[in-house]
Write a structure and sequence with these properties.
Elements lengths: L8 H8 L5 H24 L3 E16 H7 L13 E4 L2 H10 L9 E5 L2 H9 L5 E4 H4 L5 E4 L5 E10 L6 H16 L1
Parallel strand pairs: 2-3
Antiparallel strand pairs: 1-4, 1-5, 1-6
Helix pairs in contact: 1-2
Length: 185
């Protein structure tokens, strides 16, 4: 699929081969079209950049052992009301995103945070709150405990670069190799 292409028929056809139920096919097709809409919005907002969707990552909520010892271990989504969270990026966007997938938190629950995900993760590791994190990242932190394993947080991983990718064979090669390696996660 080329950058900015709006048709989702080719991707949807691939999904029909792998997903057996109508509901799964419908959900996957909707997801692809949503990603294309995001890509088009991104292109409109950042005309000098090119983006490629690498994958849909899977994440969960995590907290440090120290935080859980002090504040208790949430066992359900309703238990999250009694906990603090660490934000990564804009708190309002994070709250809205989580709300759209059925996880209802309030801004007041985000006491600390950072625009940098690595810093946000470090704040959570220091016991300052609960944080959503990619399961592939969290598995390398033995002090962090996965919470609510039934609550999957799916999110897209995008690779972006400047439009010079279209005129620089070296840049295109690096971009393609990086995309391939990241997709293997």
């Amino acid at each position: 699929m080329r950058f900015g292409e709006r048709s989702c028929s080719g991707e949807a056809e691939k999904i029909f081969l792998f997903l057996p139920t109508h509901g799964q096919i419908r959900q996957a097709t909707h997801s692809i079209c949503s990603q294309l809409d995001r890509l088009t919005a991104f292109e409109d907002e950042h005309p000098d950049l090119v983006a490629r969707l690498i994958c849909e990552a899977k994440g969960y909520f995590y907290a440090s052992k120290e935080y859980l010892a002090a504040r208790g271990h949430p066992r359900s989504l309703s238990d999250l009301d009694q906990h603090d969270f660490v934000s990564m990026g804009d708190v309002s966007r994070m709250v809205d995103y989580l709300s759209n997938i059925g996880i209802h938190l309030e801004r007041r629950q985000f006491q600390v945070g950072s625009e940098n995900g690595v810093v946000g993760w470090a704040l959570a590791q220091a016991g300052l709150g609960i944080i959503p994190m990619d399961a592939a990242v969290a598995q390398h932190s033995p002090n962090m405990v996965q919470l609510l394993p039934q609550t999957l947080i799916s999110f897209p991983i995008w690779l972006t670069t400047h439009r010079e990718i279209h005129t620089s064979p070296k840049m295109r090669l690096v971009f393609d190799v990086l995309a391939e390696v990241l997709a293997r996660r």
